[in-house]
Amino acid sequence: MKVEEEGISLRGTVLDPLIEKKEIKYREIILNQTISQKKACNEINNSKYSIFTFFPFVLFYQFQHFFNLYFLGLTITQFIPALEVGFIINYVGPLSIVLCLSMFKEAYDDILRHSRDRQINNQLYQILTIEGLMNKKSGNLQVGQIVQVNKDERIPADLLILRTDDKDGNAFIRTDQLDGETDWKLRKSVKLTQNMDDNQLTSVSGLIQFEEPHQNINSFKGLVQINEMDGKQLRESTSLENVVWANSVLAVGQIYGIVIYNGNEAKMMMNQRKAQTKKGIFDVEVDKLSKLSFFIMIVLAVIITLFSSPPRDFKYVLQMYMRYLILVSNIIPISMRVNLEFAKIVYSVRINRDTKIEGTITRNSNIPESLGRISYLLSDKTGTLTQNEMIFKRFSLENEKYTIEQEDLTKIKQILYDQFKYPNEKSGKMRDFFTCLSVCHHVTPVDDEYGNRTYQAQSPDEIALIKFAAQQGFYILSRDDKEIIIHIEQKELKIKERYQILNSFPFSSENKRMGIVLKNNQNQIHFYVKGADVVLKQLLPEKYSSYIDEETENLARVGLRTLVLAHKKLSQKEYEDWNEKYIKAAQLIEKREQEMQKLIEQLEKQLEFIGITGVEDKLQDDVSHTIENLKNAGINVWMLTGDKMETAICIAILSGLKHATQNFIIMKDVIDEIQMSLILQNLEANSNNVLVIDGTSLQEALHGFEQQFMKAAMNCPSVICCRCCPTQKAIVTELLKKYSGLVVAAVGDGGNDVGMIQSSDVGIGIEGKEGKQAALASDFSILKFNSLNLLLLWHGRLSYKRSSLLSQFILHRGLLIATVQTIFMFLFYFLSISLFSGFLMFGYSTIFTMFPVFCIIYDEDVKQEIAMRFPPLYKSIQQGRLLNTKTFLIWIWKAVFQGFIIMICSILLIKQAFLRLETTVFTCLIFTQYAMTLTELESLHIYMILSNLLSVLIYLMTLLLFPEQLLVQDTIDVPFFGWVILILLMSWLPLYILRRILKSVDPSDYEKLMDQVQRETINTN
C-alpha cells in the first residue's frame, strides 16, 4: 500500500463534487501499494531524557530554581581565594545532596517511563500481507498497514476498521484509558470491506481519504473508495463510528483495521499534555519567607561591612561584603527544600494508606498542605453528591400520573394488557410509552459465559428506564445496529416485536436529546425521541409547554431527574424522501454534521407528546453530615451542575447546602441588565441567602457584571449553579480564585468536571459510574464524597500544620547559627572567617539535627476522632496564621535571643582558647535545637524521643571518635558539659516560660479553641 505523506488537494478526486470550491487538504492512503518508508514509526516515547540528555537537562531544570542557583553561586565563590571563608565541603556537600536527590528521583521516574514505553513498543501484533499474517512490533507499525487485533488487546495505533468477526460488522471497545469512560462503545466496520476475505483485503484497488490529524477524539471525517474490476467506483463516507483510537481496548471479538495515524499523530499522543504544575499556597508562602530571609541576609551583610572598617577602595569593600554575605548565608537553609519534599511524600503515603478512606490516591504530591487551607469547595451533583445509581420512580402521561407503588403497578399492567388485547378499542398511550422506553436508547444487552445479562450504556439513566420497562413485561432480547428485538409479556399474551433500525441519532450534550427511526413488524415507520424538557417542549405543540413545565418542576422538587418522550409516525414516502437527503449529507466531508443536523431538525417537526419520566439519584452516604462538617470548618460549599434548577434545589435542601433558616434567591432566565443589577444589590445587602442561578443568567452575570456578581456570590453562604456547561464551571472556578484570593477546591466525577478540577487550586476526582476521567485529571482521587471528612479535616489540616512548624524550625536553625556568626564577627574585630570548622558546619543541618527536626511531621495536636468531632479546629488554621510574616518575625526574635545568649555566655563563662569556645557554642546550638523540638511540639511522640536520643549519641560519638579531625581535642571534659547545660537553660528556659505565660494570659484563637476541646473531651469521658 502506498501512503501519500503530504496533504493533498481533493480537487479532481472522488470528493470533488462533495466539497465546496475552496481548497481543503486531506490525507490519502492508496490501498495495496508499497508503503513509503519515510513515514514515521509508531514508537511511543513518554520519557523525558535519554542517556546523553539526562545530566544537562536535569541540571538545567534544577538551576531554574532561584535558590539552587543562589547556592551554586555561593559554592563557586569558594573556589575564588579572596572569597574563601571555609571548607569547600560546607557548600559543595549540601548542594550536591540536593542535586543528587533530585537526580535520583528524576532518573527513577524516567527509567519507569522507558520501561513502560519498551513494553508497549515491543508488544507483538499480526499484520495482513499478501504472504499472509506476519508478526510486527507495535513500535514498527506504519500508516497503511492492516493490523489484526484480538479480544482484550490494546489498539496499537489509530485504525479504520475494515472487517470484524461479527456478521454485522460491529465491534465493542473500552476507552477508559483514553477518556476515562468505563462503558463499552460500539464501533462499525466499513461496509464496503466488511465481507472481504484476507486475499481481497490485500489485493483490492482503492483509496482512503481522511482529515489531517487533530486532538478531538470525538470527531473523524473520511471517505473510502473501492475500484471494481469493471471500472465502477464504490464510495462510502466514514465517521467516528468506523475508527478506533490507540490505547483503547477491544472488548470482544476480532477486528482488522488499517493504520491511519501512528506515533505522535495518534489521538492518544496528541492529547497527552504535561500536567499543569500546581504550586500550593504553602509553597508560595515559604517562598515569600525565603525571599524575606534573603533580604535580611543582604541588609545584614551591608551593616557588617559598614561597621567593619573605614571606607577604602571599591574592590576591597566589595570583597569584604561578599565574604560577610557568604558567612551569614546560613540564614537561607539549603536543606529546606529537601525536608519539605520528603514531608510531602510522607503525607501522600499516609493518605494513600489510610484504610478509613480506602481507595484515596494522591496524584499530585506537591500540594498536600493546600488540603488544610481550603476556603471554597465547588462540587458537581450527579455522581458526586449523589450515587449516580438511577432508580425509576414516577412517570406522567398526558393528565395521568403513576408511581412505582404496587397499586399503580397493578393498574399499569391491566392498562397494558387491555391495550394489547384490544388495540382497536383502547387508547395506546401506555403502550406507546413503554415501547418508547424499550426501543429509544443505545443500551446493549451483554450476556457473559454463564448466561448472566448486563447492560452497557453511556448513561445510567437509560439502564434505569430499560429495567423498569422489563419489570412491566417489555424485555430486550437483542439489539445491534440493524434491529431491536423486544419480547412483550402481558398475562397470557406473548408478543415478539422486531424493529428494524433505519436511523439512529445519539445523545449529545449540545443537542440534549436522542432519536431513532424504526420499522416494526407491520412495516410502520416510527420516529421516537427523548431528551431534556427545555429542548423537547420546543419541538412539541405549544399546548404541551405549560404541562411539561409544571410536571417536570413537580418531579424535580422531589429530587427526580426528568426526561420527556415524544414520537411521530412517518409514511414510507415521507421517510424515503427525507432519507435520500440524509444519505447525501452523510457523504459530505465538510459541514457534514451541520447538514445532517438540519435534516434531523426537519424530521423533529410535528412530534406528538408521549410522557415524562422521573428517575431518582439517591444521595451518597453521609453527604449531609460531610457538608455540615465542611461548613462548620469554614469551607463554603457551592454546587455546580448541569441538571434542572428544581432538582438542584431539592438536592441542596436534602444535602444541607441550604439551612432551614436561610432563603433562596433564584435567578432564572435573567437577561435584563436592570433586573440583574437589582438582584445583585439585594444579594450584597443580605448575607443569609442561598443563590440559585441557571446557565442563562450566569452567562449574563459573567458578561456584564463579573466583579459585582462574584462579590455578591461570595457574600452568600452557598451558591447553586444549575444548567451550566463544563466551560462555565471552569470559568466560575477561575473567577472565584481571582476575586477571593483564597484556596479553591473542586470535586467531581465526570468528564464534564475536568475543566473545573484542573482550574482549581486543589482538584479532587471521584472514581464513579461515569468513569475515571475526572479522577485521572485530579490532584487527589477518592471513591466517595464523605472521604472529604478525613482528607481535609484530618490529613489536610495536619499536613499544613506540620509543614508550617517544620519550615519555621528549619528557618530558625539557619537564623540561629547566622546570629552567632554575626555576633562573633562584631566581637572579634570583624574577622571574615567562620566560627566553626568545616565538618561541624556540614553536620549542623544534616546528621546532627536532621532527625529531630524531620520528626516534626509526626506531630499531632489532637487525636483523629477529636478533629472529626470539632471541625472548627480546621477553621482556626484555615487563614494561614501558622506561617506568615508575623510568625516568622517571632522565630527571628527567638533565634536572635538564643544566639545572643549562647555567644555572650560562652565568652563570659569559658575564658579559654578559641577552640574550646567554638566547641561550646556549637554544642549549645545543637542541644538548643533538641530542646526546642521537644517543647515546641503539641505532642511528645516516640519518634521524637528516639530521634533526639539518636542525634545526641551521634554528636557525642563524633566528638569522641574524631577529636583531631574536628579540632576539638583536649576540650571535652566534665566541666565542659556543665557549662553547656547551664548555657542551654539560659537560652531555652526563658522562652519556654514566656510561652506558657502568654498562652495563659493572652491565648490565640487556636489556643482558646484547643482549651475548649480539651474541656469538652474531659467532660465527655
TrEMBL record:
Record keywords: ATP-binding, Coiled coil, Lipid transport, Magnesium, Membrane, Metal-binding, Nucleotide-binding, Translocase, Transmembrane, Transmembrane helix, Transport
GO-annotated biological processes: endocytosis; phospholipid translocation; retrograde vesicle-mediated transport, Golgi to endoplasmic reticulum
Catalytic activity field: ATP + H2O + phospholipidSide 1 = ADP + phosphate + phospholipidSide 2
Domain P-type ATPase N-terminal: 37-84
Pfam families: Cation_ATPase, PhoLip_ATPase_C, PhoLip_ATPase_N
This enzyme's EC code(s): 7.6.2.1
GO molecular function, one term: ATPase-coupled intramembrane lipid transporter activity
First-level EC class: translocase
Binding site for Mg(2+): D380, T382, D749, D753
Main location: membrane
Entry binding sites for ATP: D380, K381, T382, E462, F507, K530, R561, T641, G642, D643, R723, K729, N752, D753
Active site location: D380
UniProt membrane topology term: Multi-pass membrane protein
Lineage: superkingdom: Eukaryota
Family classification: Belongs to the cation transport ATPase (P-type) (TC 3.A.3) family. Type IV subfamily.
Name under which the protein is recorded: Phospholipid-transporting ATPase
Lineage, uppermost ranks: Eukaryota, Sar, Alveolata, Ciliophora, Intramacronucleata
